[in-house]
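As promised in the previous annual report, we have extended the structural survey to additional targets. Below is the entry for Glutaredoxin-like protein DUF836.
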Amino acid sequence: MMSRAGCHLCEVAEADVARICGELGVPWETSDVDSDPEWRAEYGDQVPVILIDGAEHGYWRVEEERFRRALA
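The corresponding structure token record, generated without further manual editing, is:
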């Protein structure tokens, strides 16, 4: 997950991702979009951005059912 400090939507999405991945036993991590100029250029206007295996899955909000299907 790409996120940014002080981003309320990021906090909500991170809680959703943590809960869902925890239930499914799927490891996950978060990265600060502002820590890399390329990430900021690519994702900066869309955070939070959910990536699955490096591919963009969605942004701004976690669509729970769609996210669960993608992880299954």
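Strands lie at 2-3, 31-32, 49-52, 55-59. The two ends are 17 Å apart (CA to CA). These points will be discussed at the next consortium meeting with the crystallography subgroup.
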